[in-house]
Structure formats: C-alpha cells, structure tokens
C-alpha cells in the first residue's frame, strides 16, 4: 500500500465514525477483554483481531478452524460469496465455533475494473448467499485489496455496512515457505487493537496462529471485529427484514 493510500486511510479513520469505517481497534478505548483462555497466564494479554480473507477453502480453512479452536482464538472471516456457496458447511462451522463472518464480494473482482454498481451487486448477492447459509446478513464488509471509490463507500453505508480494513499485514499470500511466516511472527510486536490481515486460501495463516498463540513474551487474544464496535457478534448481523 503506497504512502498516499496510507494517508487517505488514516485521514478517513480520523473523521469517519467507527460504525462505518474501521482500520484497527481503539487502543485508547477501555476495551473489556473477556479471556477466552481458562488458565491464568503471567504474560501480558493483548487483544487483537485476527482476520482471514478469501475463503472458505476446502483444505486450509478447516485446518485453520482446528488451530483457532485449540488456542481459543476468535477470528473474523471475510468470505467470498462464490466460495461460500461451494462450502456452506465451513461457513456454518465458523458461526458454530463463535467466529464472525463478513462479506468480501461474490467473486473478488479486481477493484480497478469493477464499477460501483457491479461491486454493490456482488455485495448484495453475497449477502443473500450468507443469509441462506446462516440466517443472517453480515454487517462487516472488507473490499478486495482494501480498495474503494467514493461511490462504493457511499453504497455500502446506504446498506448499513461497516467497512473493515487492517493495520497489520504479513503478506502471507506472497509467501512460498514456512520459514517466511516464522520470520514474520518472530518480528511482530503486537499492539492492542491491531487488525491483522491473513488469508485462509493459503497455508501460512495456520502456522501464524500457532506461533502467535505460543509466543513466550506476550499473550495475544484474538477477538471478533464486533468487539471494537462495542457490540456482540450477533449485533454485527443486519436484520434481513430491515434490509430492503
Ligand atoms: Zn481478498
């Protein structure tokens, strides 16, 4: 992401209400952090949001869900509608195991080649697919590559969506072996409220969750994005009757 886009992102974060646009959690906000881990741990607990895009994937997503369950980490998945249609049982498992599900368009079409009308149509189609699978319409949306135009943004807000970007990016989609994710995990210094972007259609997120959860210096506790909106996971679903 270039410097100009970073600047625009930070400027938007400063002026737009959190219920409309989130890049990270609010470290200054007094966030109650319910400990999902039962045991007491002397390491400092750092609440962050692990987010996974571009799934569900038939092999990697179930393995990732196993690891999240093992370490009692709650994640947010921004799923592609066409993938959800192919693997609805994986979406149902995400919900059953306490994770949050957001909309990442129907086909992950290239933002530069997708009009606002087409983008919003893909959002609506994915909403319908997720509604059929889960009974709910997600409030959280992550646009492909984090790229939006004014028309796309306004269209999402008219649909009462919260746009969710990220402030931490290991670029796991570019990695070619486990050594690269190991190196990133070793260098990562988590801060409360980090929104970390990874991908569950690649294998490296699985190892990242394992390593971050077992770090000896800190104790990250991943919470769903709704935690930073000050609402519960099921309040991040839009009542379909109110959605015309
Ligand atoms: Zn994506």
UniProtKB/TrEMBL annotation:
Gene Ontology, cellular component aspect: membrane
Keyword Metal-binding listed: yes
Alphabetical UniProt keywords: Hydrolase, Metal-binding
Gene Ontology BP term (one): carbohydrate metabolic process
Residue ranges of domain NodB homology in the record: 46-228
GO molecular function: hydrolase activity, acting on carbon-nitrogen (but not peptide) bonds; metal ion binding
Enzyme class at the top of the EC tree: hydrolase
Domain of life: Bacteria
Entry EC no(s): 3.5.1.-
Record carries keyword Hydrolase: yes
Protein name: Peptidoglycan-N-acetylmuramic acid deacetylase PdaC
Primary gene name: pdaC
